[in-house]
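In response to reviewer comment 3 from the previous cycle, which asked for concrete evidence that the modeling workflow produces usable outputs, we include below a single protein chain processed end to end. The sequence was submitted unchanged, and the resulting structure tokens are shown without manual editing.
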Amino acid sequence: MPPVKRLTRKELRQPDEFVSLARRVLVFLQAHKRAALDSGAVSGGVLLLILGWQWYLSFTSVWASQGLQQALSAYQVSDYQRATAQFSEVASRWPQTASGRLASLYLGHCYVKQGSYTEAVEVYKDFLETAPKGEYLYQLALVGLALASEHKGNDTEARSFYSQAASSSGPFTGEALLGKARLYEKLSDSAKATEVYQDFLSRYPESPWEPMLKAKIAVSMGSTN
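The workflow returned the following structure tokens.
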């Protein structure tokens, strides 16, 4: 299999060819506004641009979605090498689409599954630089970044990423809290770990982890008395 091309921050921010072309057309029309008005090029040019843009978005969304589904199929059967190559292709070819953005996130997951934690950290950081902070994918990327950092042995950094994820809105708050508490335990700060476990139980009293966490809290509280 040929080596997988890892996306750089510059490439993730870089607009695709159609976006670049659209911008050049608009710049040209603005620079030649008088002549364009006289010739009627403004209305015609803008109309063509809008129609072309709509056509482009519809087709690229379909292509990107199909590529993403193929990559997800490989990921679900644990064919991580093939999934890595396919996610990378979707993310690099259609970075402006929702499928392209999701592919760049799953690329990080693939690296974690393969034990390539350095690559995973870089991919997650690239994703976080362009992702809206309010969306749940931002929180998921933080959890992935924390996990990859933890596997690398960077426990202090991992705890910081778990803390950021726990403070973000989304469905992965519980996972972030457990990761944060686990790292406090690894860093021999049982008091902080207990606080986080108590926070977790206050938010998720019906969690299947409840008996184990209560036992941990009891041991920690007993050792401080």
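Residues 1-123 form one domain. We consider this sufficient to address the reviewer's concern, and the full set will be provided in the supplementary archive.
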